[in-house]
Amino acid sequence: MDNLSQFNDAFFEEAQEHLETMETLLLDYDVVAPDIEELNSVFRAAHSIKGGSAIFGFTAMTGLTHVMENMLDLARNEELELTNELITVLLETVDVLKDILNNYRNDEEIDWDTVEVSKQRLENELANVANDLPVGNATEAPSNDGSNSETEAEEGFGFFEDTVTEPDEDQGFGFFDDEPLTQLSSTEGEEDGFGFFDENISSESEDDQGFSFFDEDTESEVSQSDEEIEGFGFFEQDDDALNVDMTTDEADQPLRNDSAESKNTQSSDEGYGFFDEKMKARQAQDKVDDANGYGIYSNGDGNAQAANSVQKPSKFATKSKTPTKNAPEAKSTEATSIRVETVKIDKLVNLVGELVITQSMLNLIGQDVHEAMAEKMMTALAELERNTREIQEAVMSVRMLPISFVFNRFPRLVRDLSVKMEKQIELVIEGASTEIDKNLVEKISDPLTHLIRNSVDHGIESPEIRAASGKSEKGTVRLSAVQKGGEIVISILDDGAGLNRERIVAKAEEKGIDLPDPLTDEAVWQLIFAPGFSTAAEVTDISGRGVGMDVVRRNIESLGGRVEITSSQGIGTEFVISLPLTLAILDGMCVQAEEQIFVVPLVNIVESIQPMNDQIRVIKGSKILWAREEYWPLVDIGKRLGGRAESINSLDLTQSIVVLVETAKSRFGLVVDTLVGQQQVVIKSLERHYRRVEGVAGATIMGDGGVALILDVDSLTQFISSDSGGASYAVRAAG
Amino acid sequence: MPSEQQGNVSSMPTREFLTFVLGDETYALDIMTVKEIRGYETTTKIANAPSFIKGVINLRGDIVPIIDLRIKFGIGEATYNEWTIVIMLNIHERIVGIVVDGVSDVMNLEEDDIRPAPEFGVAFDSQYLHGLAALEDHMVIIVDIEALISSDELGIFETA
Predict the structure, then answer these.
(1) Chain segment A383-406, per-residue pLDDT in tens
(2) Which residue range or ranges hold the CheW-like domain (chain B) (predicted)?
(3) N or C of chain A: less Cβ packing under 10 Å?
(4) Which residue has the higher pLDDT, A115 or A574?
(5) Which chain A residues are Cβ-neighbours of B94 within 8 angstroms?
């Protein structure tokens, strides 16, 4: 099935999701009061991976999930009690599965030893707890469910089976078996449903059985008998199939390999067909076109009922199914979402960027329109602007993901770390539904992991120390995300020991790091971001090597964000990360200096003023500005970025405009010639074809097609001391 | 001479070179690196960049640096008028424009036609030269444009 390989990626993605689901659910699993529904979900995830991996020949995963499934099944049937130890074993198995998945994904060698060890471990656990339970691989578990009693046996597990030994029936083992095809085509020709979404499958055919997956065509032959058709959709999220069929089906799990030999050919067919492209191609070529794109993620309802034996041709199988139970929630979400390659979305975002540029271009032209038309034109332009903005927001929202995508991995991390460090730590997550640009999601994950490791390792004390200092033995790490204006603020708060000012200062001196002056708490905390800095008394394998924090800050700053720390000795430490909502478009103020346009991000701007003479002071030969009850050092954009030779000290400042800006670190004024206007700009990378430029965050394209540079206010602070004499004003805490 | 070169039926693979003029000299670069040729337009200056980096322009949505090799290597006079040409190059998946005095021709050369470059007498450092070839009555200096553009000396690309 070479042509299956094209679905590998889909499988990898799905499997990854299933693994993550399993992990989350296992972590949430309450040993004392187990939730069977949750176990069912874990089981289903394992089951889907098993089925899928088998189809695609990823045997390492199949074997392991199989044993896992056995254990989960017992637990689900309350024949086995999941202890914390077992949960840990299961979690570790999930890890191994993740590794295997990655190996397959990257075409790497599988570490069979690990797989075997892991498998063995599960089997041992199983053997320990369930000596008397029939877990064996070869026992046929009798079905004791009335509805399923006669159904048994004829299970076409296409993928496990190279040869299907049932020539007497037209069993279509959609997958690896071509034989039935021939049979089918001889009887029913084009209409036989091996297809995936074959609409009109074999309803008229008596013998041909559609083993398609998500379709109802199986119903056709159901009409002959009362059996269940079980669809084991690969990507199936369908609880129906599983719940209803669980009893037989799961009992049969261990039997898969043997199943095809079992008797009772009359009965139920379990379609394990997956994506049979081939079938489709051969048999339903004329229909697949429209169905094709939907199939992979559609819900299969394997439970088609016997009653409606005659199917009208319907476009999508799922529409005509008659579920016996209420559809699970998963179904509704799936029906309303589609998977799109990020490349396509990025392209869309770029196009919207171009649209924003075109719109500002039109705005520019609109200003020159003759009077008679001007009013109409302005109305139309205003409309266009609003629409453009809405489109832009809509497109951006497509790229937004809940931050839970990142946060979800941390419960596991904290659990593992706290076990390892013998600390008791609770991780509280808040605001996990806060949405953030997908590109940021990927990039914020590593820094956050570092910070959480840090909180667990250095922040939270051991239970003894905590008890001694009158705290509860269980430490808390609170991870929260909230949107504030155009920013996402992520906070990592622990109730641990707090940062130790003396130790940090001592360490910094020891490492030869320049101490800031004055040595405020904030300044001291920032020292921990210096390269090579670590105060942990001993280096653990969790943290303490001091390579982390400077990377954390660099990563966050490269995203246009910043990190702030607050800490009180004995009470705790909080890291606050502020990030822009999106990396693509920015509200900016266009200013002009030395004939060039620069864009100042609106978030940084406090106020723009034309200074009066009495506001200008000279300190040590440099000009500073008195405004808003404080002194503002100045950065001369014309000189720094516009190429003017003389400094502001020799210019008449009252002829200039000063844009007061603030960053996390400092507040200062930018001296420019004029303000041009406020505008949304699309951030374009300078680094893409050139390199990073000091003081510049990127470039944008203006309405006239020209390029303007976007100022990086944070990195402009370095010019403060040289442009404006007051070095002591240089680092002035905001607010 | 050109008739000789181009008329030869040879088994040697030929490569195409775009010839351009800097000052009084004719240079050539591998045409496969050329993305497009366009007129010079005003650039947006980049602060604190060396003088041969004229700035950046908007090339259909991409922000592309423009460099003037005449300034860098002191060849001819760096004037900008309606005949000034920018050759847009595609090098290591980046786009860079170089300002030249003019673009003249496309020539086919076999490896045999290219003679080793002299160690001196050319404005470019020999490590950026592929060799010399004869065109009609004068020499064409064949530039290893990839090496030149991605060199640390120009410093256009940040060394990763």
Answers:
(1) 998 998 888 888 878 878 888 888
(2) 14-154
(3) C
(4) A574
(5) 688-689
CATH T-level assignment (fold) for domain A585-730: SH3 type barrels. (2.30.30)
One CATH from 3.40.20.10, 1.20.120.160, 3.40.50.1970, 3.40.50.300 for A2-129: 1.20.120.160
As a whole number of angstroms, the distance between CA A59 and CA A360 comes to 57
Interchain CB distance below 8 Å, B158 and A705 = no
DSSP state of A684: B
Alpha-carbon distance B135 to nearest alpha carbon in chain A (angstroms): 33
Partner-chain contact A707 B49, CB within 8 Å: no
d(CA A82, CA A93): 15
Q: For residue B13, is the peptide bond before it cis, meaning its omega torsion is within 30 degrees of 0?
A: no
A534 vs A357, higher pLDDT: A357
CB contact under 8 A, B47 and A696: yes
pLDDT in tens, A278-314: 444 444 444 434 444 343 343 434 343 433 434 444 4
Residue A461 CA to its chain's centroid (Å): 31
pLDDT of amino acid A243: 41
Its CATH class, for the domain covering B2-149, is mainly beta
Give the mean model confidence (pLDDT) for residues A98-102. Answer: 84
Distance from the Cα of B156 to chain A's closest Cα (Å) equals: 6
Kindly report the nearest CA distance between residue A684 and chain B, in angstroms. 7
Residues whose CB is less than 8 angstroms from the CB of residue B137 and which lie 6 or more positions away in sequence, other chains included = B1
Most A CBs within 10 A among B41, B42, B46, B154, hence the mutation to make, goes to B46
